[in-house]
Amino acid sequence: MVPTIKVNLGSKLPIYKQLLHQIENAIHSGTLQVGEQLPSMNELSETAYVSKETVKKTYGLLREKGLIVPKQGKGFFVADISADAHPQVMVLFDIFSIFKNALFHAFSTTLGEKADITVLVHNQDPEMLEYFLDTYLDEYDYYVVTPHFPLDEATQQRVIRQISRIPNPKLILMDRLLPDYPGNIGAVYQDFENDIYHGLVQALDRRMEKSGLKVIVLPSCLYGAIIRRGVERFCRDYNVPVDFMTGAPETVHKKDTYLIVGSQSEAGLVELARRINAQGLNIGTDVRILSFNEIEMNELILGGLSTLSTDFQQMGRVAAEMILDKHVSKVHCDFRLTRRSTF
């Protein structure tokens, strides 16, 4: 069924883009079915109160995207896009870290040659996000965004306004679910506070209950305060003594258990390992270490670095499968303890 097309004259979005997005959404959501006829240019011009040239431009763009096809003397009809094997995908990463590399490898491997991928980096800058959307909003079939930005209210609201410009059927959030984001969107994410809580439950033992937990949250960690809430709740619920710090302590004690959290956790880890070794203590027996986030190199670090981590490979794979299946949904990724020699 052809939906009612409404134009917001007060919007900064050009009128032709408003028409384009509404018709695209109707096609991708199934409101407009394959083979269904669209209003004629004159009809849409009259009902939406826009010029015929604007409608002509909109229909032209829809034809270029392969979403509608003309039939001589009859008008425009919804095309069958089910056989389209090459969706155009824009990936907007915040940074391209070693964790994002693992995620992207799983994402691109799962898509293989069935999609064309463009990668850009917004560097956690809302102005850069806005620039990319201004430039490329109508160019891609899917937008995969890691919405990692400063957590102050003004920045978060600005980011939500920008991301909401992307039609819901085209949007997949990766690595974080924006709280209360409206509509049916795709999301493959970790839940920082609750994940660390349940991960620590997996790690809980008598030694931790007795000697406590020392948590190094590096200042560079964007979600440090949120992760800390999860740690505090765990320690309160299970009566585990806890100390928080922003770097490795001068003195390390036998029976200590450390959790290192931060986007640059290797820096805190190196300094902690140096101080443990300088005091003649053994990592894994005298002092235990857990690190936040898993990468392949952890199998080799310190003879095997134990981690609490979301499954980045699952995250990339599931996001790619949403694109291949042409169906978006919200999926919370697995979070688990991986035991190695340091714990």
Structure summarized in a few sentences:
The protein has 343 residues and is α/β, with parallel strands linked by helices.
Main sheet makeup: 6 strands, parallel
* CATH homology-level superfamily of the largest domain: Response regulator
Shape: elongated
Q: Evaluate the radius of gyration.
A: 25 Å
Strand content: 15-25%
What's the pLDDT, averaged over the residues?
Answer: 91
Q: For the terminal residues, how far apart are their CA atoms? A: 59 Å
Low-confidence stretches: none
CATH architecture of the largest domain: 3-Layer(aba) Sandwich
Q: Quaternary status of these chains?
A: single chain
Structure, explained:
There is one protein chain. The chain folds into three domains: 15-78, Orthogonal Bundle (Arc Repressor Mutant, subunit A); 88-189 and 313-333, Rossmann fold; 193-292, Rossmann fold, CATH 3.40.50.2300. The chain is 38% helix and 19% strand. The protein is built from eleven helices and 14 strands. The protein has helices spanning 15-29, 41-48, 52-64, 98-111, 126-136, 153-163, 192-203, 206-211, 224-237, 265-278, 312-325; strands at 68-71, 75-78, 88-93, 116-121, 142-145, 171-175, 186-189, 213-217, 242-245, 257-261, 288-292, 306-310, 330-332, 335-338. The chain has a six-stranded parallel sheet with strand order 4-3-5-6-7-13, sandwiched between helices. A six-stranded mixed sheet has the order 9-8-10-11-12-14, with helices on both faces. α4 (98-111) links the parallel β3 and β4 (116-121). The longest helix has 15 residues, at 15-29.
